[in-house]
Amino acid sequence: MLFFLVLAAAVVAPDLHVLAQTPTDDRRQVIPALLHREHVASVSFAKIAGAKTVLAEAYGEQGPGVAVSTATLYNIASMSKPISAEVILRLASAGRLSLDEPMYKYWDDPDVATDPRAKMLTPRLALDHQTGFANWRRETGGKLAFTRAPGTGFGYSGEGYQYVARFAEKKTGKPFESLAQDLIFDPSGMTRTSYTQRPWMEGNIAQPTDKDGQWLKPQVATQFVAADLVYTNPTQYASFVESLMRGAGETAAIRKLRESVLTDRKADLCVGKLAKACPDEVGFGPGWEVVKTHGKTFLMHTGIDEGVFTLGYFDPGSRAGVIIFTNSSNGPRVILPILKLLDADPDFIAYLEAQV
């Protein structure tokens, strides 16, 4: 399921028209009221303008009776994927792997090692959600299996991201977390971002909450998952996005590729009433959902885990964007109001609104 469609089903919140007209300098009154009404424990966000973070704020509670701060760490769920994709893209930029080389020469998951379709898998297909795998192997009886031939259609797949990460490990001889540290985290100053549990996470994690506001136990990985469970905060993630805007560690060709629709979804998504507001192009590039509309290119991703909702977008042309993390299953309900309060790009907001 495309995550933006999940967002579209949930963004309708009471009094949205009133919130949209609230002056930005009143957000300290408006946002706590919004969180209370929508049963969202906390929200933390960062705004980027001119490829620099110009605003970072947090509201609500990271845990029972514990105030959130801009340093609070959130499980960003599937917003982990753009980070993992960028590791692969920077390795490709450095000539350490090719996006179109067969992965089986370095990595074959034992579950599909004897399936001839495994020889068709490439890093590009994994990053563009065209591996033919289900999202997770639990959906195919606990074993990795093809649901279609690679390259023959879209299929959102966390397994595909894990597959290409294992390939990168085998090809480079380095653990994937070390590659991310060297290529992404250290150059971007992301000192509090990790795929797996770290001592500095203790007491700093935003505890998830369900739709009724009940506190849940955080999920923290002990082994990396390339598609999920990265912990960070919006300011750190904004630093990552800033590096993309600068093209850090990338060739011009790779940067252009990331901003291209490689898995076209327009025919599937722009049907019925949605056809009237359909973007010029929409689909997936390597790591991000790509939306081209009104002469602009937006790269976006969302994340959903139990008790968690996150969203980020940026426009590489204007070098502006917003990162929003929540620790609530009701998080989608506050996204549009907060984007409007932050004066986010009106064409991006209109794209989201058109899905409702």
Q: Total helix count? A: 12
The chain-level mean pLDDT equals 93
Give the strand order of the largest sheet, numbering strands 1, 2, ... along the chain.
3-2-1-11-10-9-8-7-6
Q: Mind describing the biggest β-sheet?
A: 9 strands, antiparallel
Task: Show unreliable segments.
Answer: 1-6, 8-21
* CATH structural fold name: Beta-lactamase
The secondary-structure element order is HHHEEEEHHHHEHHEHEEEEEHH
Which CATH top level class fits? Alpha Beta
N-to-C span: 16 Å
Strand portion: 15-25%
Structural class: alpha+beta
Radius of gyration: 19 Å
Tally of separate domains: 1
Helix content: 25-40%
CATH level 4 superfamily:
DD-peptidase/beta-lactamase superfamily
Q: From the 3D coordinates, which CATH architecture would you assign?
A: 3-Layer(aba) Sandwich
How many strands?
11
What is the overall silhouette? globular
Description:
The strands form two sheets. A nine-stranded antiparallel β-sheet has the order 3-2-1-11-10-9-8-7-6, with helices on both faces. It is built from twelve helices and eleven strands. Strand 2 (52-63) and strand 3 form a beta hairpin. Helices cover 32% and strands 17% of the residues. The model is unreliable at 1-6 and 8-21 (pLDDT under 50). With 356 residues, it is of the alpha+beta class. It has a single domain, classed as DD-peptidase/beta-lactamase superfamily (Beta-lactamase, 3-Layer(aba) Sandwich).
